[in-house]
Amino acid sequence: MEEKRTIIVAWDFSNVAEYALQHAIRFAEKTNSQVLLLNIVDAEHEIENIERQLNIVIDDVERKYNFKPTFMVKVGSIFSTIAEVANEIEALLVFMGTHGMKGMQKITGSWALKVIEGAKMPFVVVQRPPRDEQFENIVFPVDYKKEGKQKVAWALYLNKLYKSKFFLYVQQQTDPKLKLQVHSNLVYTKSILDQNEVEYEQVDAPDNKNYADQVIAFSEKVHANAIVITVHRHLDFADYMFGAEEQKIIANKALISVITVFPKEVKLGGFLGHGYGA
Description:
The protein is an alpha/beta fold. 42% of the residues lie in helices and 20% in strands. It has 11 helices and 10 strands. Helix 2 links the parallel strand 2 and strand 3. Helix 6 packs parallel to helix 11.
């Protein structure tokens, strides 16, 4: 029997962590995966008390959802340990709740984005409970970044599970080189989707300003279940101070779930051949 993959839920006993768990259970049932609640503490002496609380949570989850997750408590920092554990156990996905950007986060950057950095697998960042529909309509931003091509493999995987329709939301550029790169990414994406008979619709952004805001507004307009983006591995302080596009989308006020994919040096066929797609 094939060993089940693990889906991690970043767990901190908050309401948004509960939302992440609800999403994770749905995805686990669809993919025949197991769910692990991961709680990060500051010191060893906290572990025993947290484990007692988590045992109560597990019983409650089983009673409410007829699904029994496991749990793990680790000493560390949420900004590094969640990604480290996910990489170590080769998790399929990490689901994480966020309250968006509030208070000091507006100055220092989205906490969610900082947690995500360093992971090898996608994070699904949620701000609300799942709706009845499940990843049926997904907005797929197409910009000038070459790393954006890595999202295509996950588009195929989600389409395999949910028969998802993708909205290719195309960034507008005036710089000739950037415009050419956008076009190259679009051609590549459409060719792969066409080969795999994935339904999609191309929509051009209205202009070359505020692309992240345009993506969010469009996603809300089409009632998207998720936005899939590529997140750079090394965002610096300037990115956080001046609002990296990634963090704007992750913490969107429309409360739309965001699937974050990291650039990785793999061929599409090899990636899909390891359980990530058709």
